Amino acid sequence: MRILHTSDWHLGRAFHRVNMLDAQSAFIDHLETAVRDHGVDAVVVSGDVYDRAVPPLAAVELFDDALHRLAGLGVPTLMISGNHDSARRLGVGAGLIGRAGIHLRTDPAGCGTPVLLPDTHGEVAFYGLPYLEPALVKAEFGVDKAGHEAVLAAAMDRVRADLAARAPGTRSVVLAHAFVTGGEPSDSERDITVGGVAAVPSGVFDGVDYVALGHLHGCQTITDRIRYSGSPLPYSFSEAGHRKSMWLVDLGADGSVAAERVDCPVPRPLARLRGTLEDLLADPELARYEEAWVEATLTDPVRPAEPMARLTERFPHTLSLVFDPERAPDDPAVSYARRLAGRDDQQIAEDFVAHVRGAGPDDRERAVLRDAFDAVRADETVREVAR
What we know:
The protein is an alpha/beta fold. The protein has helices at 21-37, 57-73, 87-90, 94-98, 134-141, 148-164, 277-282, 307-314, 332-340, 345-357, 363-386, and strands at residues 2-6, 14-15, 18-19, 42-46, 77-80, 102-105, 115-119, 122-129, 171-177, 179-180, 199-200, 210-214, 220-223, 226-228, 245-251, 257-263, 270-275, 293-298, 318-323. Keywords: DNA recombination, DNA replication, Endonuclease, Exonuclease, Hydrolase, Nuclease.
């Protein structure tokens, strides 16, 4: 069976101030062409179809168009909700839409109920694990501690139990939206940290033939059987080095996996330039970036006059301007930035406690801080879903 694995469309999202709807529409065109040209038997979309719980009307219209086009191809499609989606909204009409071959899996209670697709070697069971917000689904899975690993492990236990009851040799594919250990994040993914831990070990997914992951925006291989497709378009300058693509996966009769990448069309390359303003304007080596979307980091010790206006004369698609002046090592601004670099909210809060009273928090106080951050994140998720 040949499977096309994609994820993280983020329909309705802009790139800085650039409306990406035309680029997202071009991706849907490309998706339809790829399904037809590569003889795809099933399409899997591993979450974050939309960029927010209540997407703009134009994004909904594009999604509607994508559903009709995929259904028109006669190729079964499976989609799960991601942490950016409203699972309830995305899943509206799932039963009816399923009759057209578009299978939406947004309810955590259905993790152990697969979509069965046949090929010449038997059936392949596709299990959809929508994004599982630990605080919201721990009761459903009967876990005591609200953590990503605990709820994903419980969901996978249901998958393995169902698979064990099926005919020997039944092959399996799991769609999941999570941060798996070994994955490389970018700046454009929403933080899903709970209890100070966002990543789950890849061993959680043991026992299935292929795991189609979503959430991280870079296409990457965790193991030969566990892969991220990444987003089809860039959504932050941290993705400047990404090659945007989808996975074309061939699932053999024995469950073996062979995968290759299918490149996605990107409207412009990304460039991250750094230097003084005069250097950026004069360097002939930078001519190749004049049609790219540019993030410029200026290192001038003193902020120059009208830097954006001057930059856009040479780089008309400059979207981001960052100031990082070169300073002496003993400059207070340098030491403060170094103290914050690479530190998460929990660590910054603990440092603040130590600064205020002269001693850092003890284990009980760390737990209180951790619970407070988790409560805020859970509340943000609930409010996002309720919108």
